[in-house]
Amino acid sequence: xxxxxxxxxxxxxxxxxxxxxxxxxxxxxxxxxxxxxxxxxxxxxxxxxxxxxxxxxxxxxxxxxxxxxxxxxxxxxxxxxxxxxxxxxxxxxxxxxxxxxxxxxxxxxxxxxxxxxxxxxxxxxxxxxxxxxxxxxxxxxxxxxxxxxxxxxxxxxxxxxx
Amino acid sequence: xxxxxxxxxxxxxxxxxxxxxxxxxxxxxxxxxxxxxxxxxxxxxxxxxxxxxxxxxxxxxxxxxxxxxxxxxxxxxxxxxxxxxxxxxxxxxxxxxxxxxxxxxxxxxxxxxxxxxxxxxxxxxxxxxxxxxxxxxxxxxxxxxxxxxxxxxxxxxxxxxxxxxxxxxxxxxxxxxxxxxxxxxxxxxxxxxxxxxxxxxxxxxxxxxxxxxxxxxxxxxxxxxxxxxxxxxxxxxxxxxxxxxxxxxxxxxxxxxxxxxxxxxxxxxxxxxxxxxxxxxxxxxxxxxxxxxxxxxxxxxxxxxxxxxxxxxxxxxxxxxxxxxxxxxxxxxxxxxxxxxxxxxxxxxxxxxxxxxxxxxxxxxxxxxxxxxxxxxxxxxxxxxxxxxxxxxxxxxxxxxxxxxxxxxxxxxxxxxxxxxxxxxxxxxxxxxxxxxx
Lengths: 162, 438
Prior knowledge:
Strand order of the largest sheet of chain B: 6-5-11-8-9
Shape of chain B: globular
Largest sheet of chain A: 5 strands, mixed
Structural class of chain B: alpha/beta
Largest interface: A-B, 50 and 60 residues
Distance between the termini of chain B: 17 Å
Helix content of chain A: 40-55%
Oligomer: heterodimer
Number of helices of chain B: 18
Number of strands of chain A: 5
Low-confidence stretches of chain B: none
Strand order of the largest sheet of chain A: 2-3-1-4-5
Radius of gyration of chain B: 22 Å
């Protein structure tokens, strides 16, 4: 029998710290932080993981699913080890985002919303990160922003991530 | 050169008229640096002189500071809506959920000068009687969120946050909250829903947040740059701030300039600065190209052709008179090689993707707009599509709970109005009037 799903003590401590920011009767406010922490640890958000977060914060599971499916940076399916999201919105497109997109697709041999056969990279098309001056701009696994990504810099990044 | 300046950069990189971004080199963001620049002096002055909250609100009203997030609502007036006699917790919220295409000023403010926002929120908390504040930070700028967490810890350790600040009877707690990828949370009631741990679906208004906000309590929501302007106003007076700009358009404004310019970046200039001067600060057009079009206030605002733009001054009223809006201060520049159909297509896809789905005109209408522009771009358009696009836009704008519907409609109408030739050419010749851009 599988052990019941849980998160590491470190992750739970971080969720507790996030929950302490809100009034004691408003623990639900910490759900976004909790899901982010859970996703960092598990790689993606399975129903089991979301159910755990629901119990932990005293929320109905459906309320957690609603949040997890509304915000685009939560992954409800497994993705590659490195998720690369590139912004292709207009200001970025005017500053070379389309060149970066083509270079990534060609180098990795995949399109947007696809994962390389070795499970290493998933490519996503992002919407405005609020960093247009740094275009082309991409996010690695949601948290690391890489700026002014010329084809050379993209090659260096992919090599370093491998 | 690509990208924004990398620290350490020259301390006048944001322009010689900067007051919020003055003296920043990208590394001097810590509390000791901020204090060395005169930081937290406004808060100390208020607490030492026991300035009444009403007087602070009056001073901000006098400054003609208008909301820097997009709507341009007078800040002092907004603060005065907070019920004075309310028994119970009131809240203060900073909207740093910066995701309007073209806008990247709050990111620079928060990473290079986080304490100016903290001090501004402290003063606003004092003025509105709110003991607790939250700064809602765009999910995509995680590294900036982490820096803000560090800055808050610094402020707490220095006695600027918590109970009885600097020995006074004023107490204020402030926390950072991060989003996780939803443009709609930049809408203030969508943001409040998100803060409560729900989907970021905007609320019906009224009631407005000042009477029913976070957790149903009176709440004031202001943009990051709005809060950042407050300490200067307290130290120098509302009138001095007003005089930096123009009547009804007080102060300086950070403009995020992106697109086909030689040096994209944030430039803080006095409101009323001619557009041509701002363009020059951004290094002029890239590669010797000519200006064709500009969206002066973020992707949700109407596009203007070069001929109008070059005669426009950068303040709320002047841009409105020219037929667009200052919005968030995001200036998107396009040169003569850009296809306006393809540019609109990318924006229309964005609003289709980001509609929260709550109101039918927006949920369905943004998809219709996107699919129609898509078929024109791909040579399958019909001439009557242009009237239909306008018609659909008219049936979205003003018929939804929040402004995302208007934000999707305004670009469509303005692109067709000013660049109809290009749309007609696409329909009749099944190709671009200009060489396809990369």
